[in-house]
Design goal:
It contains 2 helices and 20 strands. It is an alpha+beta fold.
Length: 261
């Protein structure tokens, strides 16, 4: 009975993590470029009372006796499916249609990556994220620019006040990884490279497996509310079943202790 208590407790702990992941997904249903997470579970150690194939008198036992000791969370994985596009009519909003990330420079000089294309201009005219992190390579909008045009390949053209033709001032490059699921979430819609992602590969949007860019659009969260609600209900029921197992095991222990009275 003691083993059943700890086994059921491990199931409750796993489902608690599952609910935490679901809650974070739902909390970010309106976060630009957010990618939902999924908890993966696995069984843990087994106690073997008799191994398969053993036996006496020349007989071979076809199946052994193994009792599992519960479950645990094996991984919490980011799912990098594309979210829905939202038209904003803002000339500095850019959505990535397909694989790729924008690269930004953090205040400590390190690099981070994001799918949130809600770009803005800082006091120097540089294109930056909502938190003020500059895009790499740097693109500076000159003073007097009356309009900005961002092409599907990332080219940035501006029309200066008094000019009749636009001028190319830079290009928005994209970065991709061999294993994007291995990226480390930093918060603020940012990701960091890890040893499992592989080295970042920079390239031109729309070429060599990179997605193209759409000006005036933002990529929304890829969280499906109905799917998350179903997962929440299933997780809640699994938690309840494990708690019922603990109650039942406790009642059986009470019966056993009552035998000596």
């Amino acid at each position: 009975m003691i083993r059943a208590l700890w086994t059921a407790a491990s199931g409750m702990q796993s489902q608690q993590v599952n609910m935490d992941v679901i809650a974070n997904n739902l909390a970010n249903v309106n976060s630009t470029g957010f990618k939902r997470s999924r908890a993966d579970f696995q069984d843990i150690l087994y106690q073997t009372a008799r191994a398969a194939g053993t036996g006496g008198d020349g007989a071979e036992v076809p199946t052994g006796v193994q009792v599992g000791l519960g479950s645990r969370v094996a991984a919490v994985q980011k799912v990098f499916t594309t979210g829905d596009f939202q038209a904003t009519e803002n000339e500095l909003d850019v959505a990535i249609e397909g694989p790729g990330f924008f690269q930004v420079t953090l205040p400590d000089g390190s690099e981070a990556y994001t799918r949130a294309g809600a770009l803005k201009k800082d006091s120097d005219g540089r294109l930056v994220t909502s938190d003020g992190y500059p895009i790499v390579p740097e693109v500076v909008i000159p003073e007097g620019a009356t309009s900005v045009a961002i092409g599907s390949s990332g080219t940035v053209d501006v029309l200066l006040d008094g000019a009749s033709t636009s001028s190319l001032i830079g290009t928005l490059e994209l970065v991709r990884f061999g294993n994007p699921a291995g990226l480390s979430s930093l918060g603020r819609n940012l990701y960091a490279e890890t040893p499992t992602t592989g080295s970042p590969i920079a390239g031109t949007a729309g070429e060599d497996g990179f997605g193209s860019l759409s000006q005036g659009f933002l990529e929304g969260s890829n969280v499906n509310i109905m799917e998350e609600m179903v997962n929440m209900i299933a997780g809640q029921r699994a938690y309840e079943v494990n708690s019922k197992t603990i109650t039942t095991a406790d009642e059986m222990l009470q019966m056993t202790s009552g035998l000596v009275r």
